[in-house]
Recover the amino acids of this structure.
């Protein structure tokens, strides 16, 4: 652990021996599926990094102040998720720099250190639960998963 997310991740990275792959995942994303985790490791083994992301569905605007906004081409943006998987040496080196509170995820920290970040298709169900509304959505998604799970060999 640590006082900040940055410190927690850095402390964890400092404990890893060797130079394999490491997936960093937010505990507030409990609906991640095995396919996303598997893809993140397969891609990071080739590209050194793999970050789950989904396209924006809503329109977005930049607020410029003075009651003005600007339309933005949403196709240029992705919502970043976890897991974010990296070669251990790459992300450990990136975390040796001074903490910057404006960098809110591991991909941003890797990019600041000069490393390319590879995005792959995440899932809209891999939601981040930070509000009461998010919890309601997560419960509905879990209920739907339970209802669509097909028993195998007579077992549920």
């Amino acid at each position: 652990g640590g006082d900040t997310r940055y410190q927690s991740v850095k402390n964890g990275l400092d404990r890893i021996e060797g130079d394999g792959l490491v997936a960093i995942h937010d505990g507030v994303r409990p609906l991640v599926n095995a396919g996303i985790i598997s893809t993140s490791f397969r891609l990071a083994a080739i590209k050194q990094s793999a970050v789950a992301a989904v396209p924006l569905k809503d329109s977005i605007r930049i607020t410029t102040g003075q009651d003005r906004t600007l339309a933005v081409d949403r196709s240029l943006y992705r919502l970043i998720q976890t897991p974010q998987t990296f070669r251990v040496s790459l992300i450990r080196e990136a975390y040796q720099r001074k903490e910057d509170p404006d960098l809110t995820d591991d991909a941003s920290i890797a990019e600041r250190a000069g490393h390319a970040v590879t995005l792959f298709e995440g899932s809209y169900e891999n939601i981040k639960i930070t509000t009461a509304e998010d919890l309601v959505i997560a419960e509905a998604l879990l209920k739907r998963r339970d209802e669509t799970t097909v028993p195998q060999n007579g077992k549920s």
Q: What stands out?
A: The chain is about 35% helix and 20% strand. The chain has a mean pLDDT of 94.
